[in-house]
């Protein structure tokens, strides 16, 4: 649009407005009155609204004060920011245990008839005994590993490393690897820590064949099958340090353990697990002390291979309509061991060596019945068969059976009853009586009381 | 020979691929989360619930059957706030399944969507089973269910991305139905407002707060600690001046102490489902609240 045309447009607008100007001047008064009326009306309305807002605000303030913010409100920033470096501290737990023992036989004479001693046998000493205090640390190392240290402090003030292992957390396809020192996955009871046992001591078969509990210094590979039935395979190897093996001088893998566990539910109330395990170890100069036919204390030693089979089965019943009051845990394990090699007599002096072959077995069955929410009663039967051990030195007529009194064939057995009372998940008081014929000669009547207390991080309810 | 090997490989690959195409596997720790996953996931999820309403979720064991389910699970739906501390960590550890470890998308805690009540300022085991992160019995406030459903819908969509649309629309549908039901429950439960009650364990807190009911006392002197005779006698005297109208008992609780108190303070014991499946009527999440409210109303009359 040019200048000319713009001028025309303005002129046209002015021409249309000018005639109306006089008329408008007459209406100004009316308009003003109208606007004033609107103004007052709006002022009134705004005033009313302001009053209502104030009213609502005060009401909201009172309700907000009366009730906390609704839970569906957005979650608060997860947790208060870590104040210091303790946020990454591992979970710490402490177990304290002690017992009081009244034993009819001298515990110094305790042995399991017909079996080469494995180290951790018998009910321990008389009177008050401070048990092992367990100190455990566990945490994730990084996104790929977790690690755990469990140290045991005994009454004499010695510290031993019960377990110190790492474990992978992010391997694919159901695999996991554990390494360091750990309780082997063989059998059922072997992995269970002392504070979680249902009796004060281990079954005789575990004492005779595994020296109480088999700890592996090595590695474990486990694979869990992707099935609805629990099916787990495991393989381990290590330095063979634990009974029935010994620390070997050679390089490489010393000993192997293999196990398969399978488990599932029967209905809503029963869970079970069964397994079969194999432990293949070698021993070099596995020494033990005996008293020979001339009443001399001698040190003998076994060198050779030791192969153990374990079959285990555990069943837990908790009625699905009343799991609080009643429950039953039944468990049984059968162990069989073949040892082949040589037995040296009196290694420090005469040091005579002959062949050695044994095939020995043992089993236990136990039931623990919960009859009230915090009360349990347990019964266990142990039986061992020392078999016919071939000792070359005796068969050749060099020595007599009286030179190996500990290896005199026997069929040790034991019956144990137990009551325990747990005031909470973290404390347990227990009384136990055992009719113990491990010596297969004089029966030991063992009466024991025990306490177990758990402090710190919440323990795991393993099956 | 080669063709045979190839066919076998193909068959194996197909066998591995097919279940992945089908429903994702979800392991829920409680029947309530199991029911919620079913609502949100429909036929795209295969839910296994680890516990029943009659079990105390504190006291469960890592059974072999549960370890096996954890091994194949694509998603674990737990309450969190240490409710499952006794067994879930063991289960996850033994599962050999990296997808469901804490921090992974396959591990979901309901409390991550909620603000908890009863967060203690100090904790010590002498106080009983206190939960340092707050009261974990969150399922009895339907507003909590709505919030968890929202977060869980997003999680299902993340874990099973190809079906994200499906979960979103099911989630929206659930929220609409849930809001309607909530309006119905709130209206029906109006007479319960201010009603004084006694509980057994501090696990009704969220329900009572939602309905505006008044918790006079709990039969357990401390969480998880059973009452002594002395404490109960003391409770009776305390309640004499301010008597409760109802004593609430969950399906999994021991009825004895509640019955004993009921005779002394002349208030009826109301059995509540507490979880889906806790009563015959409480078949799903909607029925859980229908049944809870109708039982409360019937007893309060």
Give the terminus-to-terminus CA distance of chain A: 93 Å
Q: What portion of residues of chain B belong to β-strands?
A: 5-15%
List segments of chain A where confidence is low: pLDDT < 50 over at least 5 consecutive residues. Answer: 7-22, 60-82
Strand content of chain A: over 45%
What count of structural domains of chain B? Answer: 2
Oligomeric state of the chains?
Answer: heterodimer
Any idea what the radius of gyration of chain A is?
40 Å
Shape of chain A: elongated
User: What can be said about the biggest beta sheet of chain A?
Assistant: 16 strands, antiparallel, barrel
Number of strands of chain B: 8
Query: How many individual helices of chain B?
Result: 10
Could you spell the SSE succession of chain A in H and E letters? HEEEEEEHEEEEEEEEEHEEE
- The CATH superfamily of the largest domain in chain B bears the name Nitrogenase molybdenum iron protein domain
The DSSP helix count of chain A reads: 3
CATH architecture of the largest domain in chain B: 3-Layer(aba) Sandwich
**CATH architecture level-2 label of the domain at 103-127 and 172-449 in chain A:** Beta Barrel
Give the ordered list of helices and strands of chain B.
HEHEHEHEHHEHEHEHEH
Order of adjacent strands in the largest pleated sheet of chain B: 2-1-3-4
What order do the helices and strands come in, and which of them pair?
The complex is a heterodimer of chains A (463) and B (301).
Chain A (H helix, E strand, L loop, with lengths): L2 H64 L24 E13 L23 E4 L2 E8 L4 E9 L5 E10 L6 E9 L20 H7 L4 E10 L5 E9 L17 E11 L3 E22 L5 E21 L9 E19 L6 E21 L2 E11 L4 E2 H4 L17 E12 L2 E11 L6 E13 L7
Antiparallel strand pairs in A: 1-2, 1-3, 1-18, 3-4, 4-5, 5-6, 6-7, 7-8, 8-9, 9-10, 10-11, 11-12, 12-13, 13-14, 13-15, 14-16, 16-17, 17-18
Chain B lengths: L1 H20 L2 E5 L2 H11 L3 E5 L14 H9 L2 E4 L9 H8 L11 E3 L32 H18 L4 H25 L7 E4 L5 H7 L2 E5 L10 H12 L5 E5 L4 H11 L3 E4 L12 H16 L1
Parallel strand pairs in B: 1-2, 1-3, 3-4, 5-6, 5-7, 7-8
Helix pairs in contact in B: 2-5, 3-4, 5-6, 6-10, 8-9
């Amino acid at each position: 649009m040019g200048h000319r045309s713009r001028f025309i447009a303005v002129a046209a607008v002015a021409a249309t407005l000018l005639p109306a100007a006089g008329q408008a001047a007459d209406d100004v008064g009316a308009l003003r009155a109208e606007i004033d009326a609107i103004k007052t009306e709006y002022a009134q309305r705004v005033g009313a609204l302001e009053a209502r807002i104030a009213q609502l605000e005060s009401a909201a303030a009172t309700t907000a004060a009366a009730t906390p913010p609704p839970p569906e409100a957005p979650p608060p920033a997860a947790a208060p920011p870590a104040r210091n470096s303790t946020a990454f501290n591992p979970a710490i737990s402490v177990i304290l245990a002690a017992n009081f023992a009244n034993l009819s036989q001298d515990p110094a004479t305790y042995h399991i008839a017909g079996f080469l001693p494995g180290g951790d046998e018998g009910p321990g000493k008389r009177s008050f005994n401070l048990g092992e205090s367990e100190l455990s640390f566990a945490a994730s190392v990084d996104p790929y590993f977790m690690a755990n240290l469990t140290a045991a402090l005994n009454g004499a003030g010695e510290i031993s490393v019960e377990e110190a292992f790492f474990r992978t957390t992010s391997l694919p396809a159901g695999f996991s690897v554990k390494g360091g020192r750990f309780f082997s996955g063989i059998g059922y009871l072997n992995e269970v820590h002392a504070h979680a046992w249902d009796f004060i001591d281990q079954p005789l078969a575990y004492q005779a064949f595994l020296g109480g509990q088999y700890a592996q210094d090595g590695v474990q590979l486990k694979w869990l099958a992707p099935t609805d039935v629990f099916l787990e395979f495991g393989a381990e190897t290590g330095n063979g340090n634990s009974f029935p093996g010994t620390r070997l001088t050679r390089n490489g893998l010393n000993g192997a353990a293999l196990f398969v566990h399978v488990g599932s539910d029967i209905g809503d109330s029963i869970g079970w697990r069964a397994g079969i395990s194999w432990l293949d170890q070698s021993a070099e100069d596995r020494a033990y002390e005996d008293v020979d036919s001339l009443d001399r204390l001698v040190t003998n030693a076994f060198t050779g291979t030791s192969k153990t089979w374990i079959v285990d089965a555990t069943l837990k019943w908790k009625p699905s309509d009343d799991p609080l009051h009643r429950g039953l845990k039944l468990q049984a394990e059968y162990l069989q061991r073949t040892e082949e090699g040589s037995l040296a007599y009196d290694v420090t002096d005469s040091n005579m060596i002959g062949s050695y072959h044994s095939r020995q077995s043992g089993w236990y069955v136990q039931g623990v019945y919960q009859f009230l929410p915090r009360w349990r009663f347990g019964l266990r039967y142990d039986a061992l068969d020392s078999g016919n051990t071939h000792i070359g030195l005796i068969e050749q007529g060099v020595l007599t059976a009286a030179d190996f009194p500990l290896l005199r064939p026997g069929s040790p057995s034991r019956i144990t009853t137990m009551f325990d009372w747990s005031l909470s998940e973290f404390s347990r008081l227990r009384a136990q009586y055992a009719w113990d014929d491990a010596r297969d000669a004089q029966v030991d009547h063992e009466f024991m009381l025990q306490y177990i207390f758990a402090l710190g991080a919440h323990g795991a309810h393993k099956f | 020979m080669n063709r045979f090997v190839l066919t076998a490989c193909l068959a194996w690959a197909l066998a591995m691929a097919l279940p992945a195409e089908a429903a994702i596997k979800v392991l829920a720790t409680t029947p309530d989360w199991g029911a919620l996953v079913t609502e949100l996931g429909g036929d795209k999820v295969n839910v296994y619930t680890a516990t029943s309403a009659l079990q105390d979720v504190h006291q469960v064991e890592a059974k072999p059957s549960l370890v096996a389910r954890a091994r194949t699970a694509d998603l674990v739906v737990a309450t969190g706030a240490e409710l499952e501390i006794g067994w879930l960590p063991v289960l996850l550890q033994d599962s050999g399944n990296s997808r469901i470890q804490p921090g992974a998308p396959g591990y979901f805690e309901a409390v991550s969507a909620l603000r908890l009540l009863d967060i203690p300022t100090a904790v010590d085991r002498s106080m009983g089973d206190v939960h340092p992160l707050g009261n974990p019995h969150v399922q009895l406030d339907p507003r909590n269910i709505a919030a968890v459903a929202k977060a869980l819908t997003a999680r299902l969509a993340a874990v099973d991305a190809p079906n994200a649309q499906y979960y979103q629309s099911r989630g929206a549908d659930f929220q609409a139905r849930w809001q309607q039901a909530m309006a119905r429950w709130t209206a029906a439960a109006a007479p319960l407002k201010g009603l004084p009650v006694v509980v057994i364990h501090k696990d009704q807190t969220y329900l009572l707060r939602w309905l505006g009911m008044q918790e006079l006392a709990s039969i357990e002197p401390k969480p998880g600690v059973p009452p002594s005779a002395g404490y109960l006698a003391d409770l009776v005297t305390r309640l004499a001046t301010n008597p409760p109208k109802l004593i609430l008992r969950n399906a999994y609780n021991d009825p004895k102490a509640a019955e004993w108190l009921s005779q002394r303070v002349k208030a009826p014991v109301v059995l509540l489902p507490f979880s889906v499946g806790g009563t015959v009527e409480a078949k799903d999440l909607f029925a859980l609240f229908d049944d809870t409210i109708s039982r409360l109303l019937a007893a309060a009359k």
